[in-house]
Design a protein that fits this description.
With 411 residues, this protein is of the alpha+beta class. It has 7 helices and 22 strands. The strands form 5 sheets. A 6-stranded antiparallel beta barrel has the order 1-2-3-6-5-4. The protein has a 6-stranded antiparallel beta barrel with strand order 7-8-9-12-11-10. Strand 5 (117-126) and strand 6 form a beta hairpin. The relative contact order is 0.10.
């Protein structure tokens, strides 16, 4: 019987007794003693744990606050309208994140690993590349915020004798020698969850995505299968040595959650832009000084290139004699010049134009070819710097397109 080793049946002669059988169990097996409090970790696991512990203090949680007026009391209150992650850039308290994380913010607050919270000011941003630079503003800390931070420090091992924020910049790596298949690590605050680590590999290099802020293409993007979810934006993508190689910025997903295709801005590009913003508060980028038609409109007209709608007065294109789109006395549309070549590069659409401009510099003298009716015209011009006023951007809405579908270019 299966239970023979554990029990004996009732004595002989009582086999037919109408009673439930009884068992003599003897000594039950002793309960298993707990294993000693030691866990064997592989070298890879130990390296990952060490990387997370060393870099977590360099990752912050960013809250975007907006002012809202109560419809009944008319009182103005501040409410969170967005959140994301950020990276401690240097010992001066500069924080790097995505522009879309802090867009339209009335106030920005930064939460460190020890849960202390500090106000931050926006030093500058680059909408086209989705990068923003913040700086911790300890002079703007409120009494309530200071009291809460002091209380946290009394109950944590992460203490600061000066009462200031614990600043630990992330180690900066390079994105110039990355390889597909290389292991990467993403740290951030997805869905508001505090300091989450995901791992994966680089699954593609040199990708191109469109900026969600301006529609301008961003080249050289890193593609990874490390899980990136809402809230990870602005967080670091690290190599196996814990060095920054990218800033997580977007996902490709139909559901809004990670589907194994995430994108990060390469650290070499980020470093150059951040240096400009910290030094001058803005990014220097060359412009032609035009407003142009959306690519869909140009295709509908059966043209190839970039159709100029307007050349800003005294701008580079205006000085070179570029013709704008206009109407005659009868109201008929007279198409302007169509840019087909810029400094030797063939221009088929707005992405080609943006991509070529990114390789040029302010003050550079370049050549440009345009189609003016049936004729091709060669022009020479000198590129200007982009104006500092964000409100001067132009937008053209072609009939049949919804508002907002036009792609602006600073005039």
């Amino acid at each position: 019987a299966p239970l023979a080793a554990w029990a004996e049946q009732v004595p002989a002669g009582q086999e037919n007794a109408m009673i439930a059988p009884t068992f003599k169990t003897g000594s039950p097996p002793s309960a298993r003693a707990p294993e000693p409090a030691m866990r064997s970790l592989t070298s890879d696991e130990q390296a990952t744990i060490s990387l997370f512990k060393e870099n977590t203090p360099s990752v912050v949680y960013i809250t975007n606050l907006a002012q809202r007026r109560d419809v009944f009391t008319l009182n103005i209150t501040e409410a969170p309208q967005g959140a994301g992650s950020g990276i401690v850039w240097d010992d001066d308290g500069h924080i790097i994140t995505n522009y879309h994380v802090i867009a339209r913010a009335n106030q920005v607050r930064v939460t460190f690993q020890d849960q202390t919270v500090y106000p931050a000011t926006v030093v500058g941003f680059d909408e086209d590349k989705d990068i923003a630079v913040l700086k911790i503003d300890e002079n703007a800390i409120t009494p309530a915020m200071k009291e809460a931070n002091d209380g946290i420090r009394k109950n944590t091992s992460l203490k600061s004798a000066s009462g200031k924020a614990e600043i630990r910049p992330v180690p900066l790596g390079t994105s110039s020698d990355l390889q597909v298949g290389q292991r990467v690590f993403a740290i951030g605050n997805p869905f508001g969850l505090d300091h989450t680590l995901t791992t994966g590999v680089i699954s593609g290099l040199g990708r191109e995505i469109q900026s969600g802020n301006t529609g301008r293409p961003i080249d050289g993007i890193i593609q990874t299968d490390a899980a990136i979810n809402p809230g990870n934006s602005g967080g670091p993508l690290l190599d196996s040595a814990g060095r920054l190689i990218g800033i997580n910025t977007a996902i490709y997903s139909t559901s809004g959650s990670s589907s194994g295709v995430g994108f990060a801005l390469p650290s070499d590009m980020v470093s150059g832009i951040v240096s400009q913003i910290i030094t001058s508060g803005r990014v220097t980028r060359p412009i032609l000084g035009i407003t142009f038609a959306p690519d869909q409109a140009v295709e509908q007209l059966g043209l190839g290139g970039v159709l100029v709608l307007d050349a800003r007065e005294k701008g580079p294109a205006w000085r070179a004699g570029v013709k704008s789109t206009s109407r005659d006395e009868s109201g008929r549309l007279i198409l302007g010049d169509v840019i087909v070549e810029l400094n030797g590069a063939l221009i088929k659409n707005s992405s080609d134009l943006y991509r070529t401009l990114d390789k040029l510099t302010v003050g550079q003298e370049i050549s440009m070819k345009v189609m003016r009716g049936e004729n091709k015209v060669d022009l020479g011009l000198t590129l200007d710097d982009r104006p500092n006023e964000q409100s001067t951007q132009g937008m053209f809405i072609f009939p049949g397109m919804a508002p907002g579908e036009g792609i602006p270019i600073p005039p």
